[in-house]
Amino acid sequence: MTNFAHFSVEKHVPEARQARQYVDKQLPSTLIIGAVITSIVVVMAVMAPILATHDPIAQNLSNQLSVPSVKHWLGTDYLGRDIWSRLIFGARTDLRIAFFAALLPAVIGTLMGCIVGFIGGVFQWLLLRIADCLIAFPFYLVVLIVVFAFGSGETGIYVAFATVGWIPYVRVMSAATEAAKRQEWALAARAAGLSQLRVIFVHIFPNIVAQPITMFVVDMVYVIVAIITLGYLGLGIQPPVPDWGAMIADGQAFVTTQWWIPVIPGTAVIITGIGLSFLADGMTQLLRPEV
């Protein structure tokens, strides 16, 4: 019996070790951790109408600043609104806006970068010089200026990020497309008489798509931070819509007495940022081409 057990361990431990090494190689630990954290946050945001215990905008002035309890899991704010309900609805609002605010410039910049990188010449030079001029200004300063110009709310946020967010994508995708079009497989596709758009988006883009994907996830972190900052300054989503930045701003006056009011949404921001950062790092490792 002992020999059989010994034989079984000796036989299967190396196989288990190889399987674990294969999984680690294929799926980096940072990717798994980031995916788990991000998935939890996203699921809570999507299921906010089901998970919420109260109306997130309903006020109850007779129950202001209550401590966490069975009725109010995370307590109430200075207007008697349930913090748990506002937290998950705030996640729903901020994640939705952050996703589209990051996606819009990603699509614009990727398309422009691929096209000018393939065409080259004066069009590429001109677009890159425009990008160089815009990138000279601090990112968050430009966002604040554009939001001031277009007004607070979702429209101002989308326009602000679309104004400056496309620049990194154009620079990266232009260089990647320019390098890819010189490869033999790209030259063969062009020699076969395929249209330029077909060569770009059917043959070249699938080989460089990893770069904009990882950049998009990284940008989500910056966009969320910017949205929270705008909400904190009163330039983001306007009341009574729940927003993490506004929740932090509303609770800062009570940080020494009811500390959980600003700390809870602040912690949610940190956890979400960590999850997205790990996810981006893991995707970079997974999609990085082997040399």
Automatic annotation (TrEMBL):
<protein>
    <submittedName>
        <fullName>ABC transporter permease</fullName>
    </submittedName>
</protein>
<keyword id="KW-0472">Membrane</keyword>
<keyword id="KW-0812">Transmembrane</keyword>
<feature type="transmembrane region" description="Helical">
    <location>
        <begin position="156"/>
        <end position="172"/>
    </location>
</feature>
<keyword id="KW-1003">Cell membrane</keyword>
<dbReference type="InterPro" id="IPR000515">
    <property type="entry name" value="MetI-like"/>
</dbReference>
<dbReference type="GO" id="GO:0055085">
    <property type="term" value="P:transmembrane transport"/>
</dbReference>
<feature type="transmembrane region" description="Helical">
    <location>
        <begin position="97"/>
        <end position="119"/>
    </location>
</feature>
<keyword id="KW-0813">Transport</keyword>
<feature type="domain" description="ABC transmembrane type-1">
    <location>
        <begin position="91"/>
        <end position="280"/>
    </location>
</feature>
<dbReference type="InterPro" id="IPR035906">
    <property type="entry name" value="MetI-like_sf"/>
</dbReference>
<feature type="transmembrane region" description="Helical">
    <location>
        <begin position="259"/>
        <end position="280"/>
    </location>
</feature>
<dbReference type="InterPro" id="IPR050366">
    <property type="entry name" value="BP-dependent_transpt_permease"/>
</dbReference>
<comment type="similarity">
    <text>Belongs to the binding-protein-dependent transport system permease family.</text>
</comment>
<keyword id="KW-0997">Cell inner membrane</keyword>
<feature type="transmembrane region" description="Helical">
    <location>
        <begin position="126"/>
        <end position="150"/>
    </location>
</feature>
<dbReference type="GO" id="GO:0005886">
    <property type="term" value="C:plasma membrane"/>
</dbReference>
<feature type="transmembrane region" description="Helical">
    <location>
        <begin position="30"/>
        <end position="52"/>
    </location>
</feature>
<feature type="transmembrane region" description="Helical">
    <location>
        <begin position="220"/>
        <end position="239"/>
    </location>
</feature>
<keyword id="KW-1133">Transmembrane helix</keyword>
<dbReference type="Pfam" id="PF00528">
    <property type="entry name" value="BPD_transp_1"/>
</dbReference>
